[in-house]
Amino acid sequence: MLSKRHSLLCAALISITSIAQADVTVTSPWVRATVEGMEVSGGFLQVKSDQDARLIGAECACADHVELHEMSMKGGVMRMRQLPSLALPAGKQVELEPGEFHLMLMGLKRPLKDGESVDMVLLVKQGKKLLRVPYKAEARSPARH
User: Fold this and answer.
1) Which distant-in-sequence residues (6+ apart) come within 8 Å of 22 by Cβ?
2) Residue 1 falls inside a structural domain
3) 38: closest CA among 116, 110, 139?
4) 9-33 burial string, b = 16+ CB within 10 Å, else e?
5) Is there a contact between 44 and 103 (Cβ–Cβ < 8 Å)?
6) Which of 44, 103, 119, 143 is the least buried, fewest Cβ under 10 Å from its Cβ?
């Protein structure tokens, strides 16, 4: 009986260690506040994974879908393109910010009011594991960022 308990304890410790090794941290999250009739908004944050990983998407109940985008300037023309994923090198903070990498909340179901909290989930792939990382983003008007 003791060996069975010991085995269960070891399995639990291994499981806890795996969770700790799969740590993904989100800091300074915010989304752009909108007005009535706007169907898109931008999402911004810093994300850090303790293991090599890939950000493969995000979810938000207030939008039909969320896309990962990159914005760049080429020949004086601003270009935006959807990305399938974004590398998250182990231990390095990756910034999603205006004019760079960012999330696009598409098909907003309602306006995002300045100061409100928006529930979001990052989808992160670490090896064969898909991690769902929930966080809250504050809606900010253009004047506040």
Assistant:
1) 50, 51, 126, 129, 131
2) no
3) 110
4) eeeeeeeeeeeeebebebeebbbbb
5) yes
6) 143
Predicted confidence band at 22 (pLDDT cuts at 50, 70, 90)? low
Predicted pLDDT at 9: 45
Domain-located, residue 12: no
125 vs 17 pLDDT, higher one:
125
Give residue 26's identity as a one-letter amino acid code: V
How far apart are alpha carbons 133 and 121 in whole angstroms? 5
| Host domain of residue 103 | 24-144
Q: How many domains does the chain have?
A: 1
- Whether residue 64 lies inside any domain: the answer is yes
pLDDT in tens, 27-64: 999 999 999 999 999 999 999 999 999 999 999 999 99
